[in-house]
Amino acid sequence: MQNYRKNNEGKYIIFVLITISVLMIIAFVLGNAKGTINISPSRIFQVIFHDDGSVERMVIWNIRLPRMILAGLVGINLALSGAILQGVMNNPLADPGIIGISSGAGFFAIIILVIFPKYQALVPLAAFFGAMLAAVIIYSLAWKGGIQPIRIILAGVAVSALFGAGTSGALVFFSDRVHGALTFMNGSLSARSWPEVWSILPYTIGGIILCMLSSRKLNILILGDDVARGLGLNVEATRLQLTALAALLAASSVSVVGLLGFVGLIVPHSIRLLIGNDYKYLFPGCILLGACLVMFSDTLARTILSPTEIPVGIVMALIGAPFFLYLLRK
Amino acid sequence: MSENILKVENLTAGYSGKNIIENISFDIEKGKIYSIIGPNGCGKTTLIRTMSRNKKPKSGKVQLNGSNIFSMNTKEVAKKMAVLSQTNSTMSDVKVKTLVQFGRYSHKNWWEAANKEDLDIVDWAIAKTGLEKFADRKINLLSGGERQRAWIAMSIAQKPEILILDEPTTYLDISHQLEVLELIKTLNEDEGITIIMVLHDINHAARYSDEIVVIDDHKVFKKGNPWDILDENVLGEVFEVDSEITEDKYTRKPIFYARKVVRK
């Protein structure tokens, strides 16, 4: 295998991408099939394309299908966001959580959930606002005649701690209302449907297009700032644009499913270990594996202790961490 | 009289409150090889980083064919001036061929893919640096000397008029040092690329440069040909050593041997 890989790099990459695609399709079908009533794969496709008024049609169309699509979209957005941030920060440990974007979103959502529960419908909007506000604060703190990756990470950690403290404070003072808040903080796809799909879809489509167009710039940026500048890349502007894109992708997914950790870190890393750091292949790999991982985790979260549902973030950590360790040891 | 391709004018740069280079001015003539030497902490790396727009100056200009590089579009600068920085990127694992293709970045718009001309230039750069055998090898699997040649191949794929190199021989053993310096000389002679490099080894600077710029205490101490610079008094003053200068039988260039340290 190692030898084959060396001599047929291109074919090897395509083989890996196709394998992940197959896994993604399996995860999608599985997610639609399993639950309190089990539906066979052929029946799933029948009722997706034809409204026969049956219970299956209702379950698939109103509940499972949108939820699976949403899981896929969230996975794609978080994985792309992480892949971009790692390149932009030139740091393999960067992800939306580390640079404070997630905690900004979390804080604003928690405030709504525990202090103004009447306005629960505003949670996505508040989370989005919080994520962008965190990004802006981090940027202005890190700006010193240009953006240095290490300053962004330090500012991110500080902002993260601040919003984290705010969140904990809110939970302590309003401890009688924390249930919804806990679900949000662990990330959950429970009871999400088409409206959430439509609200995140534009970001996913735009994000994918912009990522693919930026792959050449990112490949150059990871050679180091001086090298990239020597090659004619406008390093500061590129870093600013791409961080904004990553923040937008992360914010859009936090706003609909809450704080879902791990995806932004683990998916890009797995792809790097499997097929290397070339962003031309890294992005497609992240799209496929990101969607696959979240769909699969959500299916487990829903079914493993049925009828009780576990927040998907917990399942994600349970599958993600060992897989990651396995890749590291390989 | 040959033309000045690059003019450094009253360049001052540094950090808040502290200037690392002060009021530096000199001209670079087209087609020559220049070496910048000086003791540790004299400001030569800051000078070369500022000259290659990797650091913004506090004041002063660097004129490239008459335009200030700090007000030019960075892609336009890259078409004329290639910079080989010291790099230790660990994130990238590209193949040599891909790396060399990055050299074409400044010649492309974002929607354009590499065309025949780009691929020919990439092949030429790889051949010129003797890397044909390694074209499909990943850069992180190359030896130090091969990797340095790969970076040089990337720089010349930019088809620059000027090539700036920051200590191109660091971390290489002596045979690879000479190999890299010979390659740089060939590029200068065959392609007419003007070379500006920071070198640690004074004998290498003497052997391979037309002109040497000595930086000491944040300023230009002296600029001249190797025989002007390799002088007991100049080296004694700048590097604080007692030295002996002789002539190499083959190259007719000066050789310097440091006998002992003489602190000022």
Question: In words, what does this structure look like?
Answer:
The complex is a heterodimer of chains A (330) and B (264). Chain A has 330 residues and is mainly alpha-helical. Helices cover 78% and strands 0% of the residues of chain A. Chain A has helices at residues 2-7, 9-33, 41-49, 55-88, 101-115, 123-142, 149-173, 178-186, 194-221, 225-230, 235-257, 263-275, 279-303, 312-329. In chain A, helix 4 (55-88) runs parallel beside helix 9 and helix 9 (194-221) runs antiparallel to helix 13 (279-303). The mean pLDDT of chain A is 85. By secondary structure, chain B is of the alpha/beta class. Chain B has helices spanning 44-51, 74-80, 96-102, 116-128, 144-157, 174-191, 202-208, 226-229, 232-239, and strands spanning 4-15, 18-29, 33-37, 59-64, 67-68, 81-84, 162-166, 194-198, 211-216, 219-224, 241-247, 254-261. In chain B, the strands form 3 sheets. Chain B has a 6-stranded mixed beta sheet with strand order 6-7-8-3-9-10, sandwiched between helices. In chain B, strands 2-1-4-5 form a 4-stranded antiparallel beta sheet, covered by helices on one side. Chain B has a two-stranded antiparallel sheet with strand order 11-12. The A-B interface holds A 9, 86-87, 90, 92, 145, 213, 216, 219-220, 222-227, 229-234, 276-278 and B 49, 52-54, 56, 74-79, 82-85, 87-89, 91-95, 98, 102-103, 105-106, 110, 136, 154-155, 158.
